[in-house]
Write a structure and sequence with these properties.
Elements (H helix, E strand, L loop, with lengths): L1 H21 L6 H32 L4 H20 L19 H25 L1 H28 L4 H12 L2 H14 L4 H25 L7 H22 L1
Helix pairs in contact: 1-4, 1-5, 1-6, 1-7, 2-5, 2-8, 2-9, 3-8, 4-5, 4-6, 4-7, 4-8, 5-6, 5-9
Amino acid sequence: MTLLWILTFAVLGSVAGVAGAATVLLFSEKTLAALIPYLVSYATGTLLSAALLGLLPHTLEHQPAEMILATVLAGLCLFFVLERIVIWRHCHVVGHCDVHKTSGYMILVGDALHNFVDGVMLAAAFLSSVPLGIAAGLAVIAHELPQEVGDFAILLDSGLKRKQALLLNLLSSVPTLPGALLGYFALSQTAESVPYVLAIAAASFLYIGLADLVPGLQGHIGPETGWKQFLLMLTGVGTILLIRRLHG
């Protein structure tokens, strides 16, 4: 059953990303630019609450706080370095990505790596507990939607046709499954490493939420949108809390 849960959310995460990219085919860039900040707001709430209310408390129950927090710090530093060398690239706002720094194909490399790591993290979360896995899986799905839409926009701006860009987005989402399978079989044999993988997962969620999503939202907050974005962030937090309550 654990493997089935892992594969289900790995597929859902991949499908969500491709579905998000496909929305570019249906809406104008103006409509997407107006919609994405709200999707990002919800994703921010789910990512931060999954990290701070789900993953970290669970890891701290099984390992010394100093070791876990040191792992989180190392993870944050690692993701900073990866993003600086354009491997861990995120783009959640249409029209607000620096295409001069990142080619369309580098976006795909970073996306594939990111999805592979997401798969490993999903496996670690579900191996710890089903509620924790569901919370982590929902957080992954929530941020994949706006991320893939933004990446798709960059691919189009790089000169690719829509069908080509959609196919490449689909291929970059595939590594989630092998990552989930590898994580399941590897971590099943080394259970003592699971809390540290979860700490890295928490670092990933925190980095994406605080270094990538929140700064992007600040550029869209105004009297007419700020409170709506805040409510959607709270909705994301509430979703994670509800999952914990239902499965607690």
